[in-house]
Amino acid sequence: MSNLESLLPELRDWNNGAGIDIESWIACIGNFQLAVGYSTVFWPRFVEFEGYVLREGFSVETLRGCEQCCSGVRGSVEALLNHLHIADIQTCGTDVTGEQIVYLGRTLREIYTAKLRWQFPDREFEVRFDEGNFENLIDYQLTFFQV
């Protein structure tokens, strides 16, 4: 069993215990509405605004509040506005494990790094995901900012 499959113990239970591969499992239990929704997390849309690079959907009012909160330090403003709590990707249900959160955080760090390099090749970004051993899973966060 691959490491990824070990994060999805339900796979073993399918087909009277014979198991199921991940893509077949997704085809059986997923739906296209979720797939479209998850695409916004797994291939996020970034926008440039006043020299900032932010996840699409921010509000100017929130940006101004973050500027005040962060004393105008642009990297701190970006890091605050761009942070994502991994556990908030799916708030319904309590079946998530720390191992699953870390896997998703690492994967998203790679995706965000690649997308930012592709979309803004003339800029340098730091994409952070702290893998610390947090008691509260909501503390696992991904963020990025320009350096």
Q: How would you summarize this macromolecular structure in one to three sentences?
A:
This protein is α+β, with helices and mostly antiparallel strands and 147 residues long. Helices cover 43% and strands 14% of the residues.
SSE inventory with pairings:
Elements: H1 3-6, H2 22-29, H3 32-42, E1 46-49, E2 52-55, H4 60-69, H5 74-81, E3 84-85, H6 98-119, E4 125-129, E5 141-146
Antiparallel strand pairs: 1-2, 3-5, 4-5
Helix pairs in contact: 4-5
Please describe what this structure looks like:
With 147 residues, the chain is an alpha+beta fold. It has a domain of 100 residues. The chain is 43% helix and 14% strand. It has six helices and five strands. β1 and β2 form a beta hairpin. α4 crosses α5. The chain is elongated.
* Arithmetic mean pLDDT: 93
* Residue share in helix: 40-55%
The amount of beta strand, in percent, is 5-15%
Strand order across the biggest sheet? Answer: 3-5-4
Q: Distance N terminus to C terminus?
A: 40 Å
Q: Label the overall shape.
A: elongated
Secondary-structure element order, N to C = HHHEEHHEHEE
Which structural class should the secondary elements be placed in? alpha+beta
Largest sheet: 3 strands, antiparallel
Uncertain runs with pLDDT below 50, 5 residues or more?
none
Q: Number of helical runs?
A: 6
Oligomer: single chain
Q: What is the number of E strands?
A: 5
Radius of gyration: 18 Å
